[in-house]
């Protein structure tokens, strides 16, 4: 199972962290954004979920390689009537988790609009991960993996399918985004020192070290290669959960 | 031989002797040795002649001579030898004796020496005993001292701080860290232990007091150091835009809890730092935005009020979340796993930390309130569109609700938001009220013949529609539907938006009718009212207002039915007859009354017959102007129903004996519908019983029915005459008008059961009460 190695790393909840990243979770109403987030932060499926009112916040610290990353997660309401409220939260987000429902084609058709919104309103280096949620309901599938994957490639976003019911791949999108952001930091295209980037250093000491040398992510590059290989080899049909 | 001789020789002593000698063997060892010794003594004479020859024996003169001589001298030789030997012994012994004497002397000397030594020893022994004793005592003492020493050092180790620990506490060079905290921990443990010790029966000991004093100094210094350090840290917190808890901070806070005054001091510093830095980052976000202008400054969107206000509030919301997380980490509160957006329980008992967190949050965010309030209010006040101001007010309300749930109803921000929200709602209401009032004051165009609501009202309604749309999709609207307070506040809006305009419509229409009497004010007003009702219909939350409007409309409809009924009666020529029949003069039969004299009655019935044939029955041109078609038909049918009933009243009066009509049945039967009410109903296309819904006097009806049935034989013939008699209609109509006036003058004195065609003052009054 690809990404399983994340689980071992990420289950540990830690207090201190090396980076702080702001994410927004967006997508059509009913796509399962809150459930996905709930599973990610509470490790359990949220039953009888209500529509989100406006915006809700939660956070979780994950480990990626040797780095501890605190994720500030802003869960937005998908309903149109909250658009004016939720749009204000895109500001300065480093990552966006764009969720659609694989059993609901209309939730997929609108993702372009969501992506455009996010790109326009959030940080310029916004890392977007497209998540096809409810992958446990294969029999009701309305959006093919290949189609979504193609769209993701065309729009330069990461893509995977997840299930907030079974928990499959629930952590992967968050970690994928975190990894991409760390790579951007490593490559110098993103500077956590600047406010509004959506990322900041956690520990002041670390900050000093990092500002003098950018080589401190050595372990990360290795991780990236590993990750890329997995992403390519990953076939959504080979579900084993 | 022995055996032979034994018997003979046994008793012979000689033989015995002989035997004995003979049998003696000299071969034994002793003998041989003795012989040996002898031979040595003599045998070797030549060699040692002097030994034996000394006796004067010199060389043997014959063999054996020597031996014989020797044998003789043996004894003497032996004795000589013995004597010599003894001599030798004596000499030797004398020597020995001499030596022994020497020895004895020595021994004696030695003995005395020994005695001396012994005495000395004894005395020494005596003397050393004391020393030994002392040594023993000393040894014991030393042991004691050693013990004490180890006890003391243990005591000291336990009850005093080591050099390095003291340094860790007092020195500025040692950073606040694990070492420092360990030292502090130890100090506290010492004090704890010491307190226990001093609580003993003997009361406080000096050492105890000393220890307490010195540790107290150290502890104070330690706390001072903590305070210094954390104050310094707190001054730095968030300076660079990051809000993180330095390692050690939480530990310090935890320790400072024992010194509330110090904690307060430190937290005051933190609070002021946070206030300043939150304020400045808010201002930065507003005016400068992110690095290199991305994300853009919030004020860049000030032209888009919704976005501007929304962005500001969202920024505040996010700042609160970060602040809350920071404080939770600082106070080492475990997150309760709650989403920040979801409700927090404010009623349940909260810890000291929670109280601190809330206070700090409140203070930190409180500073932002001022600029936030200024900007929002400025935006609110500058809005010209009531829809936008309504949207803003709703957005504010949404955030107010959220803050109420997350930071509590008593937080400064919540209060500020509440204030802003109220102001913006008030602003909105004032503006929409002014707008509504303005519209209600605008006089209608007297030359506009149309009876439909004018553009001004349509525009106003459009605004209302949008406001209702905003409300319906409003962020206030939970899954469970709007809260009662919100619903009631919307009722207020509806009151403000609809009532003045509705009243204005009525008033203005009456005004216009005064100028243009032919213009149908009633229909116009009803059109306006039904238009508003239609507008509200899709919105379930306007139920109350709809009901209110329905009541007004019902009243207006009832008026219109009355009017229409009178119009129809006029058209049908039955009006005067009906009025007289309904309240017959007491002392005069109807047949003598000018309006109901048989010829007049006949004429009226003729007109009525013609009326039944006219298109008015199917379609009323006046009511056609009602935009609400089903309402028009309802009014029409209700009026027709009453016409049918009125006909019934007339018939029954005519048939009464007391009214002295000659051939009453023939009179009625002369014209269609021959005095039969059910026929009228049929012509009107009414179902049996439909009428009875609106009628009170069902008793009369049954009587009418009977009378109608009696004359059923004649109806067919006379129905064919209808067309021929149409010429008389005009005269009748003229008569009707005159009679009308008569009736009105009569009515004034009586009960109001006879309707009037003028606009009813009560109706206008009733709609006014609606406000």
Automatic annotation (TrEMBL), chain A:
Localization: Membrane
TM spans (from-to): none
Pfam families: Ras
Primary location: membrane
Annotated keywords: Membrane, Nucleotide-binding
SMART domains per the UniProt record, alphabetical: RAB, RAN, RAS, RHO
The organism's place on the tree of life at top rank: Eukaryota
GO cellular component: a single term: membrane
GO molecular function per UniProt: GTP binding; GTPase activity
Xref: PANTHER family: DRAB11-RELATED
Record-stated family: Belongs to the small GTPase superfamily. Rab family.
Name of the protein this chain belongs to: Ras-domain-containing protein
Organism: Coprinopsis marcescibilis (Agaric fungus)
TrEMBL record, chain B:
Region of interest: Disordered: 686-771
Coiled coil: 93-127
Organism of derivation: Coprinopsis marcescibilis
Family label: Belongs to the COG6 family.
Comp. bias regions, Acidic residues: 687-747
Domain of life (superkingdom): Eukaryota
Topology relative to the membrane: Peripheral membrane protein
Taxonomic classification: Eukaryota, Fungi, Dikarya, Basidiomycota, Agaricomycotina
Entry protein name: Conserved oligomeric Golgi complex subunit 6
């Amino acid at each position: 199972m690809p990404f399983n190695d994340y689980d071992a790393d990420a289950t540990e909840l830690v207090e201190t962290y090396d980076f702080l990243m702001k994410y927004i979770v967006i997508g059509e109403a009913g796509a399962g954004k809150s459930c996905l987030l709930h599973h990610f932060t509470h490790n359990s499926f949220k039953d009888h979920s209500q529509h989100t009112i406006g915006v809700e916040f939660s956070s979780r610290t994950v480990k990626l390689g040797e780095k501890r990353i605190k994720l500030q997660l802003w869960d937005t309401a998908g309903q149109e009537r909250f658009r004016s409220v939720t749009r204000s939260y895109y500001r300065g987000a480093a990552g966006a988790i764009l969720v659609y429902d694989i059993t609901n084609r209309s939730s997929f058709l609108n993702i372009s609009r969501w992506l455009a919104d996010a790109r326009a309103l959030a940080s310029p280096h916004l890392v977007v991960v497209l998540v096809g949620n409810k992958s446990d309901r294969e029999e009701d599938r309305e959006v093919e993996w290949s189609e979504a994957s193609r769209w993701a490639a065309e729009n330069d976003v990461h893509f995977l399918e997840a299930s907030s019911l079974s928990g499959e791949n629930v952590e992967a999108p968050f970690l994928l985004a975190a990894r991409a952001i760390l790579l951007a930091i490593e490559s110098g295209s993103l500077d956590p020192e600047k406010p509004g980037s959506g990322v900041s250093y956690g520990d002041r000491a670390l900050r000093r070290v990092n500002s003098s040398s950018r080589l401190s992510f050595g372990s990360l590059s290795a991780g990236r290669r590993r990750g890329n290989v997995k992403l390519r080899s990953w076939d959504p049909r080979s579900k084993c959960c | 031989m022995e055996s032979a001789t034994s018997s003979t020789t046994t008793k012979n002593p000689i033989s015995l002797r002989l035997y004995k000698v003979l049998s003696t063997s000299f071969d034994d060892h002793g003998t041989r040795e003795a012989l040996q010794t002898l031979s040595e003594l003599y045998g070797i004479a030549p060699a040692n002649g002097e030994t034996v020859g000394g006796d004067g024996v010199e060389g043997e003169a014959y063999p054996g001579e020597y031996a014989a001589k020797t044998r003789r001298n043996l004894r003497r030789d032996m004795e000589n030898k013995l004597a010599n030997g003894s001599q030798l012994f004596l000499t030797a012994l004398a020597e020995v004796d001499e030596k022994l004497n020497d020895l004895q002397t020595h021994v004696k000397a030695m003995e005395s020496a020994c005695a001396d030594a012994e005495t000395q020893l004894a005395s020494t022994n005596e003397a050393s005993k004391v020393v030994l004793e002392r040594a023993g005592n000393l040894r014991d003492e030393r042991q004691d001292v050693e013990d004490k020493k180890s006890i003391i050092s243990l005591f000291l180790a336990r009850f005093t701080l080591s050099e390095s620990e003291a340094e860790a506490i007092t020195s500025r060079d040692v950073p606040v860290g694990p070492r420092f905290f360990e030292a502090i921990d130890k100090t506290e443990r010492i004090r704890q232990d010491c307190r226990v010790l001093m609580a003993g029966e003997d009361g406080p000991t000096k050492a105890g007091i000393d220890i307490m004093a010195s540790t107290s100094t150290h502890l104070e210094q330690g706390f001072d150091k903590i305070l210094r350090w954390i104050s310094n840290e707190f001054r730095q917190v968030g300076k660079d835009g990051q809000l993180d808890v330095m390692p050690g901070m939480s530990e310090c806070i935890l320790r400072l809890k024992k010194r509330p005054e110090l904690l307060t001091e430190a937290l005051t510093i933190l609070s002021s730092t946070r206030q300043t830095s939150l304020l400045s980052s808010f201002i930065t976000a507003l005016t400068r935005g992110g690095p290199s202008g991305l994300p853009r400054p919030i004020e860049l969107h000030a032209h888009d009020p919704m976005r501007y206000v929304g962005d500001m509030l969202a920024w505040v919301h996010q700042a609160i979340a970060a602040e809350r997380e920071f404080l939770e980490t600082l106070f080492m509160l475990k997150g309760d796993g709650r989403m920040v957006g979801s409700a927090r329980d404010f009623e349940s008992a909260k810890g000291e930390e929670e109280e601190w967190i809330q206070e700090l949050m409140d203070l930190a965010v409180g500073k932002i309130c001022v600029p936030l309030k200024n900007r929002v209010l400025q935006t609110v006040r500058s809005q010209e569109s009531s829809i936008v101001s309504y949207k803003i007010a709703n957005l504010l309300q949404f955030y107010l609700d959220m803050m109420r749930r997350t930071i509590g109803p008593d937080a400064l921000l919540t209060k500020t938001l509440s204030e802003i929200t109220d102001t913006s709602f008030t602003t909105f209401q004032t503006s929409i009220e002014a707008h509504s009032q303005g519209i209600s004051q605008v006089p209608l165009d007297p030359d506009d013949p149309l009876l439909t609501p004018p553009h001004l009202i349509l525009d106003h309604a459009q605004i209302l529609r949008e406001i209702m749309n905003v409300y319906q999709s409003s962020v206030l609207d939970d899954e469970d539907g709007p809260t009662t307070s919100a619903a009631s506040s919307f009722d207020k809006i509806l009151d403000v938006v609809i009532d003045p305009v509705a009243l204005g419509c009525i008033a203005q229409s009456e005004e216009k009718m005064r100028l243009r009497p032919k213009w149908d004010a009633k229909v116009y007003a009803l059109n306006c009212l039904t238009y508003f009702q239609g507008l509200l219909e899709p919105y379930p939350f306007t139920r109350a207002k709809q009901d209110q409007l329905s009541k007004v409309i019902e009243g207006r409809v009832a008026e219109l039915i009355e009017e229409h009924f009178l119009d129809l009666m006029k058209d049908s020529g039955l009006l005067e007859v009906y009025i007289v029949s309904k309240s017959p003069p007491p002392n005069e039969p109807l047949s003598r009354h000018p309006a109901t004299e048989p010829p007049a009655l006949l004429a009226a019935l003729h007109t009525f017959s013609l009326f039944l044939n006219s298109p008015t029955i199917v379609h009323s041109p006046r009511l056609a102007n009602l935009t609400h078609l089903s309402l028009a038909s309802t009014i029409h049918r209700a009026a027709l129903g009453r016409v049918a009933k009125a006909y019934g009243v007339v018939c029954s009066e005519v048939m009464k004996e007391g009214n002295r009509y000659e051939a009453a049945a023939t009179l009625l039967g002369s014209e269609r519908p021959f005095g039969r009410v059910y026929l009228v109903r049929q012509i009107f296309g009414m179902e049996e019983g439909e009428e009875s819904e609106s009628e009170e006097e069902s008793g009369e009806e049954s009587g009418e029915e009977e009378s109608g049935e009696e004359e059923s034989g004649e109806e067919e013939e006379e129905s064919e005459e209808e067309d021929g008699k149409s010429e008389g209609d005009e005269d009748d109509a003229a008569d009707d008008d005159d009679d009308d006036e008569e009736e009105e003058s009569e009515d004034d004195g009586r009960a109001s059961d006879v309707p009037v065609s003028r606009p009813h003052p009560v109706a206008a009054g009733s709609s006014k009460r609606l406000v």
